[in-house]
Recover the amino acids of this structure.
């Protein structure tokens, strides 16, 4: 199994009040799966995504990623796991505004110490893969929303991570551009990438093969999508 | 390798930020600029002064002691006290010469200003020294040609003279002065030697001098009642303290001073001038260090302030970097580099302005300035250290951010 969650709990302490966000989530995810995580706000969707993305650690339970127990790692180790294993695609793109597309895509490679030549080669490949070979020296404000999201996808791919974690990737895009982005994600799945999609849009979730619905910090339903 | 790669990223970020906020960056580094400029300029002035001083003082050897009525360094009030001292006599000088074991040469000397004439040419205000043959050693008065006075010349009070380089130039031009009789203050003296060119010391031109036997001096210019200065050359500079001790003992013995009495003579040496000089310049040093330190402190606080602003402004960016794998220490290093780049830019501007300021001083005054590489590197180093010191806290703050919260920050 690529991902193995066992009784994952997350409790936030706000002052003296303990607010449980996840209350024992069990989940198995294989390589090359394409799952959507859905749920209303307050269901623990974002918390689960943060834990899956190694941005946060659970309060209880174990998270095994690629046979490594990541639930008890410190911040530096988590940073390395994020760098190596996870590619993020955010709703708001989260590109560095003053950097070119190329530099934005190179960024993950900078933090794992890839040499400049190798970095440039990999970044150009990734940009080519998302169809932006002719826009590499543009800054984010010189690109359209769809193009920005494609730069973000290239950045997520550049390090060849185990998981692509997309959090409402079409949320800030019009429906036509959104469809284009979903197509790219689908292509990536077909190429063998494992994709976790977090969304609240039913029609976006239906691109995936498996939908996991959360409610009140627990998995409510976990079902295959029939196409 | 890895650290170099993200350090380079840090440098890149820093220059991006400098470019994006030019005005803010310049204002931030103003304190550093002022500090470095001040230090560069004052240190250049002091070093210029040092150079000039050590050139002047080099004529007074570290292996020479001067027995005199007055000490070189004294307070205004002391003058009256020293004035009442007994004059130092030729006989005392002779006794010192006989008794001293550590000295190489002992020369009594008295001086006056007289006009020197040869045929229709004359040189005014020539400093005429009456002394003995040892003077060649004690004062390093080496003839360029001809010879110095011999023991016999001095002993028999022969009317001979050794003249300074410039006197020879002015009186004889191209002609050979040796053997010529010149008129000094109304008396005739035969030129037996011409000294090497020596330049001036503390405004005293060492080339407009004449040296004659001390007995001849006394009979020609009177001065029987003037105090003699005794120049003593020591066998080696390391013996100077011992020699001072010995000479004090000899002088006290000659003058039959009982133990409770103070010395009624002074023993002068180069280090006295040096000490006084160092005392004077140490004030300048203190000013340089004080102004420099305060400016760098203010500059450092400015940098800390702007870095805190920068960290807050770029919280979201830090979140992005952390999400894609930057560790806390990577962020720390990057912000430290930004602070150092800021402070070093200030340092660089400060060095340039300092160069400009000293150049202006050179143009406007006769003050020689010296900018040494050490001075520049040190100023630069301090600027960089300020960047690291005051940049650490903001950088630490950036590194400790929580990635999720930082990402959410807009």
């Amino acid at each position: 199994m690529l991902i193995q969650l066992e009784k994952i709990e997350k409790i936030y302490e706000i002052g003296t009040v303990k607010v449980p966000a996840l209350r024992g989530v069990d989940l198995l995810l294989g390589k090359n799966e394409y799952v959507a995580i859905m749920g209303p706000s307050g269901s623990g969707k974002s918390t689960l995504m943060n834990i899956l993305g190694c941005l946060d650690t659970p309060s209880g339970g174990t998270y095994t990623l690629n046979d490594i127990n990541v639930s008890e790692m410190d911040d530096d180790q988590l940073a390395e796991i994020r760098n190596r294993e996870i590619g993020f695609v955010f709703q708001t793109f989260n590109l560095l505004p003053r950097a070119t597309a190329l530099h934005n895509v190179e960024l993950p490679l900078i933090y794992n110490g890839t040499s400049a030549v190798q970095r440039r080669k990999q970044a150009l490949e990734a940009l080519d893969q998302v169809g932006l070979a002719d826009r590499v020296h543009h800054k984010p404000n010189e690109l359209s929303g769809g193009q920005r999201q494609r730069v973000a996808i290239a950045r997520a791919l550049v390090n060849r991570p185990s998981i692509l974690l997309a959090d409402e990737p079409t949320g800030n895009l019009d429906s036509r551009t959104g469809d284009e982005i979903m197509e790219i994600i689908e292509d990536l799945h077909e190429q063998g990438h494992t994709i976790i999609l977090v969304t609240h849009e039913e029609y976006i979730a239906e691109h995936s093969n498996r939908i996991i619905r959360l409610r009140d910090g627990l998995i409510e339903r976990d079902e295959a999508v029939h196409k | 390798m890895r650290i170099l790669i993200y350090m380079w990223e840090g440098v890149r970020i820093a220059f991006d930020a400098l470019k994006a906020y030019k005005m803010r960056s310049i204002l931030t580094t103003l304190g550093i600029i002022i500090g470095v400029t001040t230090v560069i300029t004052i240190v250049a002035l002091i070093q210029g002064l040092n150079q000039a001083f050590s050139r002047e003082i080099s004529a007074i050897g570290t292996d020479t002691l001067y027995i005199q009525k007055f000490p070189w360094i004294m307070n205004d009030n002391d003058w009256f006290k020293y004035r009442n001292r007994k004059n130092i006599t030729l006989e005392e000088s002779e006794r010192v010469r006989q008794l001293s074991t550590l000295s190489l040469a002992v020369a009594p000397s008295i001086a006056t200003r007289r006009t020197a004439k040869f045929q229709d040419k004359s040189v005014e205000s020539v400093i005429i020294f009456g002394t003995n043959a040892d003077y060649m050693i004690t004062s390093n008065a080496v003839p360029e040609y001809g010879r110095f006075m011999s023991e016999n010349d001095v002993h028999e009070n022969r009317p001979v003279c050794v003249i300074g380089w410039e006197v020879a130039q002015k009186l004889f031009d191209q002609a050979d002065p040796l053997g010529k009789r010149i008129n000094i203050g109304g008396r005739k003296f035969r030129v037996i030697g011409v000294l090497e060119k020596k330049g001036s010391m503390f405004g005293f031109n060492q080339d407009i001098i004449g040296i004659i036997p001390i007995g001849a001096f006394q009979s020609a210019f009177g001065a029987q009642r003037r105090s003699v200065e005794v120049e003593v050359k020591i066998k080696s500079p390391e013996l100077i303290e011992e020699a001072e001790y010995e000479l004090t003992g000899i002088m006290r013995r000659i003058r039959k001073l009982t133990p409770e009495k103070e010395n009624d003579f002074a023993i002068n040496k180069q280090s006295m001038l040096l000490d006084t000089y160092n005392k004077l310049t140490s004030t300048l040093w203190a000013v340089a260090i004080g102004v420099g330190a305060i400016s760098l402190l203010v500059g450092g606080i400015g940098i800390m302030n702007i870095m805190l602003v920068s960290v807050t402004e770029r919280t979201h960016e830090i979140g992005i970097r952390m999400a894609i794998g930057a560790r806390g220490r990577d962020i720390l290093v990057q912000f430290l580099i930004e602070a150092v780049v800021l402070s070093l830019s200030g340092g660089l501007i400060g060095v340039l302005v300092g160069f400009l300021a000293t150049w202006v001083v050179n143009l406007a005054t006769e003050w020689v300035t010296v900018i040494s590489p050490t001075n520049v590197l040190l100023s630069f180093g301090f600027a960089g250290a300020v960047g690291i010191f005051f940049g650490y806290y903001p950088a630490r703050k950036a590194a400790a951010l929580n990635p999720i919260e930082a990402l959410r920050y807009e």
Q: What stands out?
A: The interface with chain B takes residues 50, 53, 55-56, 75-76, 79-80, 82-84, 88, 90, 94-96, 98, 107-108, 110-116, 155, 159 of chain A (CB under 8 Å). Strands of chain A lie at 3-14, 17-29, 34-38, 60-65, 68-69, 86-89, 163-167, 194-198, 210-215, 218-224. The first strand of chain A starts at residue 3 and ends at 14.
